[in-house]
Amino acid sequence: MLFDAHTHLNYEGFSEEERLERAKEIEASLVDFIIDVGDSVESSKQAIKDAADYSWCYAAVGIHPDKALVYSDDDIDKIKELASAPKVQAIGEIGLDFHYGKDSKSEQIELFRKQIRLANELMMPIMIHTREADALTMDILIEEGAFSDVREAYFPKRPDEQGNMVPDARVQLHCYSGSLELAHEYVKLGATFSIGGPLTFKNARKTVEVLEGIPLQFIMSETDAPFLAPEPKRGRPNKTPYIEHVVRRMALIKGIEYEEAAHITSNNAKRFFNLEDK
């Protein structure tokens, strides 16, 4: 059982033939479920269409920070409307990207805050993209109530490594690349990490440290396909079935069997996205 907790079957660069081929590859793989993540109004609509077409596909809807200079309040209203569609399980991906968006920081922050508020209004899980803005991302999430008592009371608690039930604010740090120290703070707040292909890279010291230091009960597996292909597929377009390489590396780092790592990370994702009965 494998669960790709963040991927882009809806990628706008795919032709319909390419999208169909990717879907066939997923169906032929060991992947049971994917979350097809929106990064614009149009890609969110495509994610909803994909979810309607495939039983194993679920959607998230949101506007990526790279759209901060071109989005409108009407787009936020459209995301709210799309969030009510069948099989939409989260708001995302939203957040801050100061690597590519140095000239749109204030606009990104405004867009981020608006979508956190939307997720809080709808009481939906949140999928976070953050790059070169780790501390500010956490500050804004806290300020906007993403870890509020209201959210933690709304969502069922989750088990920690010892089986104790602890808060779950349903906030996913997608492709987490921050420090272990910050990761510990996020765990206390009730966040969950989603880790993908970069874990397998030779320069993945920080990500390995996070995986070593954070219980697997707070971690999901992802691909972010078609981006960030893992070793030994690096340099090629990423694909959801390649998630096996990520989970095998997780198992190696944690010193457990591959099947156990697959089981734990998949169950974490099913709980996070309210798919426990699937």
Explain how this protein is built.
This protein is an alpha/beta fold and 278 residues long. The protein has one domain (2-273): Metal-dependent hydrolases (TIM Barrel), CATH 3.20.20.140. The chain is built from ten helices and ten strands. It has helices spanning 16-27, 41-53, 73-82, 105-122, 134-143, 149-154, 180-189, 205-213, 243-254, 258-272, and strands at residues 2-7, 31-37, 57-61, 88-97, 126-131, 158-159, 165-166, 171-174, 191-195, 219-221. The strands form two sheets. Strands 1-2-3-4-5-8-9-10 form an eight-stranded parallel β-sheet. A two-stranded antiparallel ribbon has the order 6-7. 47% of the residues are buried. The mean pLDDT is 97.
Structural class per helix/strand content? alpha/beta
- How far do the termini sit from each other? 12 Å
Described by the principal axes of the CA atoms, the overall outline is globular
Top-tier CATH class: Alpha Beta
The count of domains is 1
How does CATH name the architecture?
Alpha-Beta Barrel
Radius of gyration: 17 Å
Helix content: 40-55%
The spatial strand order of the largest sheet comes to 1-2-3-4-5-8-9-10
How many strands in all? Answer: 10
Keywords: Hydrolase, Metal-binding
Binding site for a divalent metal cation 2: 129, 174
Binding site for a divalent metal cation 1: 6, 8, 93, 224
Pfam family, one: TatD_DNase
